[in-house]
Amino acid sequence: MARWVPERGEPVPLPGGRATGVRVPSIKEGIVINPGSRIVNCTYEGGGSIEIAVMPLDVRELLEAVPRADTGTPSP
Fold this sequence. Notes:
Blueprint: E1 3-4, E2 12-13, E3 18-23, H1 27-32, E4 38-43, E5 49-54, H2 59-65
Antiparallel strand pairs: 1-2, 3-4, 4-5
């Protein structure tokens, strides 16, 4: 099962997680996180969602672990 391991805190399991989108952080978010990062929106199989901020070079690795919701398959 995929899980997200934050820099601080406990790992977060992503049961049945699906990536639903990727976006750049807002100006307000960029004050708190690295403004060059990308935010991947993920939904859970049973409901609920999480936004995970990753650096651009790490987006592909995350999308390989969490398939896109529109196709159900991992991104290339």
